[in-house]
Design a protein that fits this description.
0% of the residues lie in helices and 35% in strands. It is mainly β. The mean pLDDT is 90.
Length: 225
């Protein structure tokens, strides 16, 4: 399982209410290293809507495009990017894109059904030992059928919206879409025919196609799209 840990500096720092700069922290892990194929089984119930927090099974950077996902697993996943905005935010990527996930990192993924095809398999060939473990996510390919809208303010990246054009797609939600996880500062999204907010929207291309977009911000400032 994945867990979220917030670290503010060394023990005892910042407890008196005064301004301070957090000291560097070194975390030590112990236990047996995972090797070989590892399978994560995803759950769905009335509480989690099929969303699961899953960890990188290896003590190594991995290429997310090399994971084997079941046919009932949504084709996109979410990561917390601390470099997004001024407070961090959720970024969403297709499993098909070459994204390097650092060791000891986790991601959210949604499953539609748990009767079958609700697993993710990690394999040894997904490891990327030459990758920089300090680099947080890097997309190296932009498919020709993909439109990415990026939102900036004062040269700071705040959010993005990805539209993927697929011949068999529709304006309804399916496993190739990704529901929007709301960020603390700013949110850019499209809306499906069910009025669900999406961060990755897979549509059928066409001259008469109209995709409604929404923008919600807690900040009073100008943005560049």
């Amino acid at each position: 399982e994945g867990i979220r840990i917030n670290i503010r500096g060394k023990k005892g720092e910042g407890l008196n209410g005064a301004a301070y700069k957090p000291s560097a922290v070194t975390m030590h892990f112990k236990g047996q290293l995972n090797n070989g194929a590892k399978i994560i089984t995803l759950s769905k119930n009335a509480i989690n809507r099929g969303f699961n927090l899953s960890c990188n099974s290896y003590a190594s950077c991995i290429d997310m495009s090399k994971l084997q996902i079941g046919n009932n697993v949504m084709a996109n996943y979410y990561v917390w990017d601390p470099n997004q905005g001024t407070k961090g935010g959720y970024a969403c990527y297709p499993f098909s894109s070459k994204i390097i996930l650092p060791a000891f990192s986790a991601f959210f993924v949604q499953v539609m059904d748990t009767s079958s095809g609700n697993t993710i398999q990690f394999s040894e060939n997904s490891k990327q030992p030459g990758a920089d473990p300090a680099q947080i996510f890097g997309q190296s390919n932009h498919p020709t059928n993909q439109l990415e809208l990026a939102l900036y303010s004062d040269s700071i990246f705040y959010d993005k919206q990805v539209i993927i054009f697929k011949t068999s797609a529709s304006d309804s939600i399916d496993r190739f879409d990704a529901i929007k996880m709301m960020n603390p500062e700013c949110n850019l999204y499209s809306t499906s025919s069910e009025k669900e907010k999406l961060t990755i929207d897979t549509r059928k291309a066409g001259r008469a196609l109209v995709i409604p977009l929404g923008l919600v911000s807690t900040m009073d400032r100008s943005f560049t799209l």
